[in-house]
Design brief:
Elements (H helix, E strand, L loop, with lengths): L2 H14 L2 H19 L2 H18 L8 E2 L4 E2 L6 E2 L4 E2 L4 E2 L4 E3 L5 H7 L6 E2 L4 E2 L4 E3 L3 E2 L4 E2 L4 E2 L7 E4 L3 E4 L14 H6 L1
Parallel strand pairs: 1-4, 2-5, 3-6, 4-7, 5-8, 6-9, 7-10, 8-11, 9-12, 11-13
Antiparallel strand pairs: 13-14
Helix pairs in contact: 2-3
Length: about 190
């Protein structure tokens, strides 16, 4: 992608972000910051922000979910993220995305305090109405398409669509910062 085209895409993305999105992102960051500080009063304040987000935006994101830096929410309606979910840095989440626990064998995981929700890597794009189910791991630089359902592990640099339809990204689609780690990947192509 050319330099000017990259700048144009970046500017368009910046201009399309609404104030509602920015406000929701600020509230999520504030909630996480208060929860991480610890203490009874801070945890109470973070729970109040969590309830406010749920009432105002239908955004169900518990304080205990681990969320990376530069987490971006596009149109914060109907997003559901589980209590033990982990989301990496620079991830974009679109409306009605769900990261939920699987029902099968869930009782054992609750008793043993094992991770029940997905772990999502860095630089992921999580599409509208996509659902990620169970304690699976999603690699870095993964794009999950709209209305996709993911129930098994996804390797890095992949695109997911439909029901577990995973395809690796072409070399042109992978960002340059990952090219140094793709020595074996380049030999296969």
């Amino acid at each position: 992608m050319g330099f000017f085209r990259t700048i144009k895409v970046w500017l368009m993305d910046l201009l399309l972000i609404s104030n509602l999105d920015r406000k929701a992102e600020r509230e999520v960051r504030k909630m996480r910051r208060l929860y991480e500080k610890g203490g009874l009063i801070n945890k109470y304040r973070s729970r109040r922000i969590e309830n406010k987000l749920q009432l105002r935006y239908c955004l169900k994101m518990p304080c205990s979910a681990i969320i990376g830096k530069n987490f971006q929410i596009r149109h914060p309606q109907g997003i559901r993220i589980g209590r033990t979910a982990e989301i990496g840095d620079n991830c974009k989440v679109y409306p009605f995305f769900c990261a939920v626990a699987a029902l099968k064998g869930d009782e054992e995981r609750v008793v043993n305090h094992i991770r029940r929700h997905p772990k999502i890597g860095n630089d992921c794009i999580l599409g509208s109405k996509a659902t990620v189910i169970g304690p699976i791991t999603i690699g870095d630089d993964v794009t999950i398409g709209a209305c996709a359902i993911v129930t098994k592990d996804v390797p890095s640099h992949s695109v997911v669509k439909g029901l577990n339809q995973i395809r690796p990204k072409r070399l042109e689609e992978i960002p340059e910062k990952y090219h140094a780690t793709l020595g074996q990947y380049n030999e296969k192509i």
